[in-house]
Amino acid sequence: MFETIVALATPPLKSALAIIRLSGADCFKVVSKIFTKELKTENNKEVLFGYIVDDKKQIDQVVVLKYVSPHSFTGENSVEIISHGSPLIANQIIQLCLKNGARMATNGEFSSRAYLNGKIDLVQAESINDLINATTTEGRDLSMVSLTGETSKLFRPIKDRIADLLSQIEVNIDYPEYEDIEDVTKEQILKKCSEIINEIDQLIKDGEKTKIFKEGLKIAIVGKPNVGKSSLLNALIKDDKAIVTDIAGTTRDVVEGDFSLNGVPCHLFDTAGIRDSKDTIEKIGIEKSQKAIKDADLVLFVVDETGFDVDLYSLVKDKNHIVVTNKADLIKKHEKDSVYISAKNNDIEPLIKKIKEVFGIGELTVKPSFNNTRQLGLLKNISSSLKVTIRDAEANQPIDLISVSIMAAYNSALELLGESNKNDISGEIFKRFCVGK
Fold first, then answer.
1. E strand or H helix at 367, and its extent?
2. What is the pTM of this model?
């Protein structure tokens, strides 16, 4: 049984309304002590109107939503107090809850309880956080598909088939004397594992394709001073965020901006022009530029009519990069290995087209997919383990040795949905959630 927790579920800002959430076996008792009406366990869901009081002093006029276990998000008795949106009032109500037996919730604890109580699986839990952090409609739509359970539903039959194969082999190992048990042949193992691998590899392919719609791209704009890096950032985000002058070294720090490319969130870093400099502040900016290059998914290496800096290019040549020639209207001869634009004139369509081409960005078809690093990593583990199974079967290894890699695949399948080691897994994932969720 979990103790009663409380947290603010809306931002700690002045607004029309605020929501304070409680969950736990004793949450009705806690709220009844500070509310003008008693909350009882009858009726699965109830809406009550009254006052929050502190020793008969009215604190606020509120609406209270009551959810009786298991008919709540967490699967426990739960209460939502809808108060006026003053941070002062919301904090007073929380303090009263704490005074009367509740404790403050930790990051993601409400979602963690929903997971631990079997209301959602781990894929659904991760989609909640993805939904909160979505910055594009495409990212939101992908998260909603997983939240409804469609993504997990796609995988469960695969998990069950791995379990069936494993159980057949285990029965053969444990009960060899039973003649009415069908022996699992090498051909059956090869056929079933190959079929599952094909399905898993397709899930990985689909997931990699949609991953960038949720996680986005980090794009660093790099080049010598005064080649038009800041103008390019302004053109991409459609805003005059970066200062543009003819003075070399104007950008002393990394300037950031965001834009959406067919639904893919793109985070831009306009870096300080990299050159030898004795200016302390400019040198710090150059160091930040070098870090931005290291962390970027894509580097836009910007040059102009003054030519190509070989030494600077050596910093980015091993990264995923595009050579971008700016001020194209001043250049007569175009090289095939560069994209030509004019950032000052907002003529950047060739670059947009090239970025889409590099990452295979097209119109997104929203469908169930496993598209975060943890999920894709476990799918790859399953595929790799089953490939070991095929290798061992083809080498005529003993059946008990073959079953080891199938067991590894099955354990990864359980971990993907969060059906094993629940506490170990959830601790790492839910701490990334915000408090109150």
1. none
2. 0.77
What is the dihedral sign for C-alpha 107, 40, 71, 90? negative
CATH architecture under which domain 5-120 falls: 2-Layer Sandwich (3.30)
What is the pLDDT at residue 181?
47
Residue 251: predicted pLDDT: 44
Classify residue 344 by its DSSP letter.
Answer: G
57-61, 175-179, 235-239: the lowest-pLDDT one: 175-179
Identify the pLDDT of residue 143. Answer: 93
Question: Residue 195: how many CA atoms within 13 Å on its side-chain side?
Answer: 11
Domain range summary for the chain, segments of one domain joined by +: 5-120, 128-212+372-417, 217-359
* Half-sphere exposure for 237 (CA within 13 Å, toward CB): 21
pLDDT exceeds cutoff 50 at 311: yes
Q: Are 108 and 437 in contact (CB under 8 A)?
A: yes
Report yes or no: 404 and 241 within 8 Å, Cβ to Cβ.
Answer: no
Residue 248's pLDDT is: 44
Instruction: Tell me if 44 sits within 8 A of 74, measured CB to CB.
Output: no
pLDDT, residue 250, reads 44
CATH level 3 topology of 128-212+372-417: Four Helix Bundle (Hemerythrin (Met), subunit A) (1.20.120)
CB 341 within 8 A of CB 328: yes
State the fold for domain 217-359. Answer: Rossmann fold (3.40.50)
**Cα(first)–Cα(last) distance of the chain, in Å?**
19
Both tokens of residue 378? 């476990």
Among 98-112, 132-146, 169-183, whose mean pLDDT is lowest? 169-183
Rounded distance, CA 356 to CA 361, Å? 5
Which token pair is 289? 């530029």
Tell how far CA 25 is from the center of its chain: 31
Q: Which residue type, as a one-letter code, is found at position 433?
A: F
What percentage of the chain exceeds 90 in pLDDT? 57
Residue with tokens 């962390």: 295
